[in-house]
Amino acid sequence: MSWIVFNKLAAILIAVAIGWFVGRMRWLGDADAGGSGGDPARVLSNVAFYIFVPALLFRTTARVDFASLPWLTLAAFFLPVLGLLVAIYAFQRWRGAAVKGPAVPSVQAITATFGNTLQVGVPLAAGVFGEAGLAIHITVVSLHALSILTVLTLLVELDLARARSQQSPTGLGALLLNTVRNTVIHPVVLPVLAGLGWNALGLRLPAVLDEVLQMLGTAVVPLCLTLIGMSLAYLGWPRTWRAVLGLVAAKLLLLPALVLVFAHWGLGLTGMPLGVIVMMAALPTGSNALIFAQRYRCQEGETTAAVVVSTLVFVLTAPLWLALLQRIQV
């Protein structure tokens, strides 16, 4: 890896450390033990989830040129990623993890599959693969959050509706209607649908609206990084590390291996496109996983730890994947 990537990793950890220091000093107030949502970390998470993330998703979807997308490369990346996502979700439900909370399977799934495609991914793609590789990376990024967050929102809302129906029994029709309503009227799915509609109509974003959306979208990165540090300060490290290390291993080792096997030996992908998507799969867990966990008040400490640990371990695993790719493509 180049020094650019190392500098980016260092910058990420420094931003997290700043957030931790602010949380440790309680400069923004104490955590709300009553759970009413008034603690600073949760307030900042809600700001990101209800304002900044929707702006980013709507702008991205409204501007995507679907006609020129490299569909083979996208399929080579997203089919194994979404496949692992569903597999982890199903495994967690099978082993009874939902007993701890309806959102646990979905939070585990996003932690093991959602990569840090911007803060780490962009400089990695640019430094290793150059401008052409960065173009492929950005193309995949344009659908990354849209696909993963949309699928997981549907799954988690279905689980929440099922849990509510067990407490106060309702019919199947009411259960499905409730799930669809909560899935569509949602700060992730609704801006995606609105952006797709805008895109389908062939409309261009007015300059002022585009500027506003871009300004709001760029706030996601620094807010999420400091939020990780604040969450560490308020929640602390998890008491047990087995689940966290398992999720980190799935993200840094299992996911890129699945993408490599499926893309190269399954679809015959080679060269730069193969290298870009394998390294994208090998990225550490992204901060959106924490935003998702805090949205549903589930496993926030474990997700925070997975983000930090995977970012640190990525320094060791990334050179291994790069060496393997070079060996395969020689």
Structure commentary:
Helix 3 (71-94) packs across helix 5. The chain is mostly helical and 330 residues long. It has a single domain (3-27, 48-328), classed as Up-down Bundle (Na+/H+ antiporter like fold), CATH 1.20.1530. Residues 33-37 have low confidence and may be disordered. 44% of the residues are buried. It is built from 13 helices and no strands. The chain is globular and about 55 Å long.
Helices, strands, pairings?
Elements: H1 3-25, H2 40-63, H3 71-94, H4 104-113, H5 121-167, H6 172-184, H7 189-200, H8 207-217, H9 220-235, H10 242-266, H11 271-281, H12 288-295, H13 300-328
Helix pairs in contact: 1-9, 1-13, 2-7, 2-8, 2-9, 2-12, 3-4, 3-5, 3-10, 3-11, 4-5, 4-10, 5-6, 5-11, 9-13, 10-11, 10-13, 11-13, 12-13
Radius of gyration: 20 Å
- Spans of at least 5 consecutive residues with low confidence: 33-37
CATH architecture: Up-down Bundle
**Count of DSSP-assigned helices:** 13
**Fraction of residues in β-strands:** under 5%
Q: Which tags fit this structure?
A:
330 residues, mainly alpha, Na+/H+ antiporter like fold, 77% helix, globular
Summary?
This protein has 330 residues and is mostly helical. It is 77% helix and 0% strand.
